[in-house]
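Before the break, one more example. Copy the sequence into your notebook; we will annotate it together after we see the structure.
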Amino acid sequence: MLCDYSTADLRCRACGHQALRLPTFRECTATRIYLPRPMLGDALAWLLTAVGITEARVSGWLGSASCGCASRRRRLNVWGAVAVDRAERWINAFSRFALGG
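Here is what the structure looks like once it is written out:
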């Protein structure tokens, strides 16, 4: 959705952006929706819980109080975010190369 500027002071009514002149076509930041990225560790934890492998069950199998699931989940989340970032950078670089820019 674009910014809705008032004609008196050229300011967006929703986000407060100051325009230099009209017409100005800018995406309004007040109406932008950011969706959370799926994280690898969270997805794997959800999948294992869905098939019945929980942290309590793994702790019972190992015979210890802590199975290390939380730290493993955090590491997988970081690794997944880095992998997605690298893939996005590679795709963007390739698309600029393919388009001649």
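The longest helix spans residues 69-99. The mean pLDDT is 84. Try to locate both features in your own notes.
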